[in-house]
């Protein structure tokens, strides 16, 4: 591993900053498709050549597929092959009870078509409801597709410690788990990190800038009133509330700003650099609507925090209440504050 790259699986290397795709799915403003493809290529040129998308992010696999084709035609297949693309498989909640090998195959074939490739680099599996027990079967069918060569690497997203242990015990060779990890949310740092370490599973982390809240823009700002601009901000405002509230959040921003000033970078860059240092973390996935922030985020890989920086940030974190439970336990409760804002059946009618 250098500061900028991480070998996630044997012979499979990614950039330590990954461009998140959710912000290109339409919920953060209209997408100009040709500009979005140009932005994806600008991100590649800035050193962020790994991308995150999902079967349920409307139009995003297609945009990344178009960027790959354009790189291949303008710069050659070798250059296009340097692009690494991580997708997800998120079966609809209403399909979990009747999930089948054919359903899984259908979604993988759809991702292959949209991403204009013969093999998916990494498929990250999500499961909405543990009361439906067939997630291990579904991972087994995904593993068959890996053995057939349609998928290179397997990962999970948002599984808690006992269920991840169950999947690993079934012999599924996972390279990664995608999850939320930030200066506000250290739920992955305890039991899940220990299990992941034992099994060689690395973390790919979203939410490192909390939907943009962890940035200079919010330093000194009053607590925002609802409605917030997009669903990501609604979701991360709940995380801030659980962390300890707006006043403590402002102390955290001040600490990140002071650290940033020592390194000549902004709050968002330090917030993501902090996540990159945590145990088991291979990469941060940072979303951006366009190239402005997407390119700026390459700087995350150049920051090396020192003991003084870490202490300053830890001192504020220690004053927080800390988020409750294992990874995604709060979000998984569909009647709770965190879970009730999610959409559960986004694959329906998409094929
Ligand atoms: N597995 C899952 O369940 C799951 C859940 C959530 C997200 N994800 C993945 O992770 C990615 C990122 O997570 P997220 O969607 O929660 O959002 P996030 O990365 O925490 O926040 C993205 C927002 O932060 C702003 N931002 C990015 N870099 C910035 C910078 N350097 N300075 C200031 N603001 C900055 C962007 O604003 P602009 O748009 O203005 O640039 C963007 O709208 C997603 O795109 C998606 O691929 C996965």
From TrEMBL:
Pfam families: Aldo_ket_red. Transmembrane segments: none annotated. InterPro entries: NAD(P)_OxRdtase_dom_sf, NADP_OxRdtase_dom. Residues 17-317 form the NADP-dependent oxidoreductase domain. This is Aldo/keto reductase. It comes from Mesorhizobium ciceri biovar biserrulae (strain HAMBI 2942 / LMG 23838 / WSM1271).
């Amino acid at each position: 591993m250098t500061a900028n790259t991480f070998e996630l699986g044997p012979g499979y290397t990614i950039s330590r900053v990954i461009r998140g795709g959710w912000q290109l799915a339409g919920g953060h403003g209209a997408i100009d498709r040709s500009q979005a493809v140009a932005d994806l290529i600008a991100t590649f040129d800035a050193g962020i050549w790994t991308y995150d998308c999902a079967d349920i992010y409307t139009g995003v696999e297609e945009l990344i597929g178009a960027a790959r084709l354009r790189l291949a035609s303008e710069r050659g297949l070798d250059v296009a092959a340097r692009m690494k693309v991580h997708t997800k498989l998120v079966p609809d909640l209403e399909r979990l009870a009747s999930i089948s090998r054919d359903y899984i195959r259908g979604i993988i074939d759809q991702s292959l078509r949209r991403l204009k490739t013969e093999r998916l680099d990494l498929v990250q599996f999500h499961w909405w409801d543990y009361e439906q027990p067939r997630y291990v079967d579904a991972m087994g069918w995904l593993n068959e597709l890996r053995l057939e060569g349609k998928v290179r690497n397997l990962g999970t997203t948002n599984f808690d410690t006992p269920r991840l242990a169950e999947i690993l015990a079934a012999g599924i060779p996972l390279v990664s788990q995608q999850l939320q990890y930030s200066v506000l949310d250290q739920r992955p740092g305890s039991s899940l990190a220990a299990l992941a370490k034992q099994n060689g599973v690395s973390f790919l982390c979203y939410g490192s800038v909390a939907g943009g809240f962890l940035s200079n823009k919010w330093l000194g700002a009053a607590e925002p009133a609802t409605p917030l601009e997009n669903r990501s901000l609604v979701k991360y405002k709940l995380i801030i509330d659980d962390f300890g509230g707006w006043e403590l959040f402002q102390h955290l921003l001040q600490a990140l700003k002071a650290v940033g000033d020592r390194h000549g970078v902004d709050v968002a860059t330090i917030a993501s650099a902090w996540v990159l240092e945590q145990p088991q973390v291979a990469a941060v996935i940072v979303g951006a609507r366009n190239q402005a922030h997407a390119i700026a985020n390459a700087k995350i890989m150049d920051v090396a925090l020192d003991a003084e920086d870490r202490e300053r940030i830890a001192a504020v974190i220690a004053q927080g209440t800390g988020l409750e439970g294992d990874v995604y336990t709060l979000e998984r409760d569909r009647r709770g504050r965190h879970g009730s804002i999610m959409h559960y059946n986004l694959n329906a009618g998409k094929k």
